[in-house]
Amino acid sequence: MARKIMFKEAINEAIRLEMERDETVILMGLDVAGSAGTGQERDSWGGVLGVTKGLYHQFPERVFDAPISESSYIGAAVGASACGMRAIGELMFADFLGVCFDQLYNQAAKFRYMFGGKAVTPVTIRTIIGAGFCAAAQHSQSPYSIFTHVPGLKCIVPSNAYDAKGLLATAIQDDDPCIFFEHKALYTTKGDVPEEHYRIPLGKANILQEGKDVTIVALGLMVSVATKAAKQLEKDGISCTIIDPRTTSPLDQDAIFSSVKKTGRLVVVDEDSSRCGFAADIVAMTAQEVFSSLKAAPQMVTPPFVPVPFARNLETAYLPSAAKVEAAVRQTME
Amino acid sequence: MARKIMFKEAINEAIRLEMERDETVILMGLDVAGSAGTGQERDSWGGVLGVTKGLYHQFPERVFDAPISESSYIGAAVGASACGMRAIGELMFADFLGVCFDQLYNQAAKFRYMFGGKAVTPVTIRTIIGAGFCAAAQHSQSPYSIFTHVPGLKCIVPSNAYDAKGLLATAIQDDDPCIFFEHKALYTTKGDVPEEHYRIPLGKANILQEGKDVTIVALGLMVSVATKAAKQLEKDGISCTIIDPRTTSPLDQDAIFSSVKKTGRLVVVDEDSSRCGFAADIVAMTAQEVFSSLKAAPQMVTPPFVPVPFARNLETAYLPSAAKVEAAVRQTME
Amino acid sequence: MSGQMSKEALLKAYRKMRQIREFEERIHSEFATGEIPGFVHLYAGEEAVAVGFCEHLSNKDRISSTHRGHGHCIAKGVDLMGMMAEIYGRKTGTCGGKGGSMHIADLDVGMLGANGIVGAGPPLACGAGLASKLRKDGSVSVVFFGDGAANQGTNFESMNLAVTWDLPVIFVLENNGYAESTSPKYTARVGTENISDRARGFGMPAITVDGNDFFAVYEAAGEAIERARKGGGPSFVECKTLRYYGHFEGDAQTYRPKGEVKDARANNDPLKRFAAAVVAADLIDSVELEKIDKEVRAQVDSAVTAAKAAPDPDPESLFTDVYVSY
Amino acid sequence: MSGQMSKEALLKAYRKMRQIREFEERIHSEFATGEIPGFVHLYAGEEAVAVGFCEHLSNKDRISSTHRGHGHCIAKGVDLMGMMAEIYGRKTGTCGGKGGSMHIADLDVGMLGANGIVGAGPPLACGAGLASKLRKDGSVSVVFFGDGAANQGTNFESMNLAVTWDLPVIFVLENNGYAESTSPKYTARVGTENISDRARGFGMPAITVDGNDFFAVYEAAGEAIERARKGGGPSFVECKTLRYYGHFEGDAQTYRPKGEVKDARANNDPLKRFAAAVVAADLIDSVELEKIDKEVRAQVDSAVTAAKAAPDPDPESLFTDVYVSY
Ligand SMILES: Cc1ncc(C[n+]2csc(CCOP(=O)(O)OP(=O)(O)O)c2C)c(N)n1
Ligand SMILES: Cc1ncc(C[n+]2csc(CCOP(=O)(O)OP(=O)(O)O)c2C)c(N)n1
Ligand SMILES: [Mg+2]
Ligand SMILES: [Mg+2]
Q: Which residues of A touch C179 (CB under 8 A)?
């Protein structure tokens, strides 16, 4: 039965259902329980933004608060997963990748290949991304491109509550290391989410709407930005296809290429850094693979090449907006 | 006066000259002295591949062997540089970025912006990249794309001894954080290098040859691969421009765009991972900015999306080769 | 009580502590109005630590700080007006509105920056200490960090590096008993009685003091800093203290025992203890302290008024200050 | 000498040590011919450590290893033929030729992998230990690392995590006095007499033993492993030893005192000391040991022959085994 619940509730539910169904699923991170052991468990934090609230209470033996030492506990999640567990490690903010990246970059991602196919490391890392809260340069980044860059990792960037639940369920049961990026601005957005357990496959894009003029590719929070722009453009008779790839690795290239073959125009909206990022990745592969279908220069709508600023007016100017997407689409129509 | 010296000697010389000219230049890393303090200084290692040999002997007070704890000593290089030094930190292999990335990603790169322009952090990080030595998945990567992705960092990927000396001299005296990537296969290659001190500006491409048919962009070791391919193609009357950007950030876009405007065709040869990498970056910006000049689909010649394999035959197949570049160029001519 | 402190020094220290307290209390109430953006972590309750150390330092000495950095900034002499404007995200802020609460820095006064990354400070402080050592000017660097941060690898590595390289770095642990919501009874659990024991294992002098007793902190700080200035290498000082507010503004603090803060405010407040001590010792008249309180209140008041009235950063500033040149 | 060891156990331990020695000596001479690709780090001289620990372990127990991993692999029961083929980069190698010397793993026998990243093993071992703890099957995990690696933040963090979570993890420091070229007199300099002192500061039992005395290692290992199996949490064992070859094959070893290895081979060799002890105690006849030596030599010989004759990996294997599914 579907109800409207919040994105963060959908994530909580996905974890809970997997933990109920599968004893090997464990959860670890900073404050993922919170106040565990103090006698106030019922009130426990459940992570810095409350996403895992209640899980410690239900599974006290499988939810672990960790000391602030991401390399050790993210590495432990990787190690436990190589030893038969399905560990979910929470990296509080993706901005913190720099203190623990090796355990994903050189360990989890490469075990299977280096060991000749003999390792299985079904670890899932959940992490918060995104700007928009004046959290400044070290708490607002969306570095999924860095992870997408790494063969051996799978990267998931859900854009709504329904997808979040289904994709996280899949990630947890997936036998490869998965990184699951949760945009903080989506946490309180609501969507129809079935109560039951369900899964959404990785590598299958969601086509939100089909249009004939321009293909817009957008991820995570940017999907809503793209949708808003498309609505506006429709008033002027410009019809857009909106593709939410849902996962950057594996990537549903087919969905993108076949759409561009129809529309001949591509705009990618991306919140990650503009250089060597996801937007460039999509534009480059499209240019290489379906060049002859392109009627106009593909456009990238990304933040400028600067750190995320603190002041609200600067941060607003920093982020891709519907207006910028509109302008980019119009440019492809000239 | 120019002599033929090796790439690694050119690097050594650049450091030595800067240390002679500027008392604030210091060097730190694992084994950068080596055997320092044992009474065998004259024989000291000078880094795992001998690049810094002799520097400890000449500057015993400014060359520091560090305990194996990259976050601490790379961070110390950053901190010392924010306090008036020009520290050169050696990250032995770029593959090890995962154990110390935060000090570059969130610290060095962002100080100036976050602090409203008041910080100057002239740190230089030297690091080894590249496959070709059967060093396998954790000692063969070329992750400059990850650093290029980060606003606030400058990235330098020299392709020959002359450039290495001039670019490193510039990097050390540059007031921004610079990451200097040294391909291990280049270390023993020789080139004409003046004895005197000189500098090569960052962000200025080297155009190795100008041709009318295709623009090839290649970095580091890939420059020689591209050159070899171009020679072969010339025999068939296909004439190539070869652009070595030298630095990925800042990037000499003008050189690339104006060449593509002439040739209408682009091939990027890159040793880094194929997803969200440097090749995609160049292709995407070219597709966006000079689309109308493009006569054919731009091509990326990169390794497959897999970790670097160990066995020699697999590693050879993994790497971009002149033959693959040739094929890509021919494809643009079809 | 530190016999060596002159009356002026005592008054200065008290003023600093009061500035921090007033600054934080005021931000707490202003934050509730919704006008202050971002994540804000308040230092109220821990004043004796920052001031106890920084009163030994000059602009040539450096400190590195944490997400809970306002107190360190004020103690080190960062301009309070600029700080408030920064926290409001204004053009007139210390960082031009581009950093915010978690990233206030002022290198001119030796403040290397608050930091949003837990454990990022210790390596930077080692670098600052190395610069001091090479300059041979007797300057030192002091790194503040919390009981949570004390578990971060960067912190252990840096203690080790400071010992190996014999650096003039003082590691100051602000043990307030919480890392966000996780209590020492569980997560922060260390295998030894005090976290300082763990530090001693690295081979440097390490002690634990009452971090709410200004004079205890001041004395321990003086000793450690003096040792470092004289080439005696690093030290570790654990200061046991308490934060009066939540981890960040907006924290419901469900994890805290009821009455913990109320009790501390009543019986273990660093400013009250300082005042009681200096008055009891007849060193300072309570009227003088009240005068400072009033002056500081006016100062913070005008900082808030000015911050609110200040303009937003110029739109173009989004693009500047990424590089010195590019 | 460990009274509890049966003759069979003694012979088995000796055979393992001899296998490691023979394997490494042979690779050393084969490497010189240029046929072995990549970076190779030899374990010869440190055999008593790997074997002293692994003789207490079953396949359910896990170890994590280092760049210098051959000895750990053999001790834990990884197939020697497969290992040799792997080091030669052959299709028949343990990892199909895709990993090489630095990445040999065999999860079926509880070997979590050699590792090219210094300090990467301890967090992984904590994860293995956590899995053991959750399974409640009494299994443990053992992590080997060097004196250089002992400085890495991941190592400190993991010791701390193991204490906090009370994990059945044994930290085994192989202190061979060198991290690449840097000697303990300089870089590896720690602030305490033994590195184990630093570990003790984390609040776990920590001792230092003669790592070339098989029986000393075996006993210390037994105690630590038993404690962990019974829920007594982590321990730390420092084993002082020496490597007989360079950091990697090709290292000119200019940093080493002359005669250091020669002296050790003559007077402090773990195999010789083992043999002398068991023979002197009349537990084993030296003829039996020589028989093992001969058998092992033949075994390693055939491993080399087979490896040389084995085919390269299939070209398609470049693309496989990145993901389970993609
Ligand atoms: C690398 C990293 N991990 C986690 C966080 C999130 N975080 C911010 S403050 C904090 C708790 C810090 O506790 P402590 O060091 O005791 O300082 P306190 O807040 O008590 O002053 C955490 C977990 C972070 N900012 N950086
Ligand atoms: C993160 C990281 N830093 C540096 C290296 C390079 N490196 C490989 S082995 C080694 C020395 C290790 O010394 P130790 O831990 O004592 O082990 P030993 O070689 O003596 O067995 C170094 C610095 C690495 N592989 N990974
Ligand atoms: Mg705390
Ligand atoms: Mg060693």
A: 30-31, 67-68
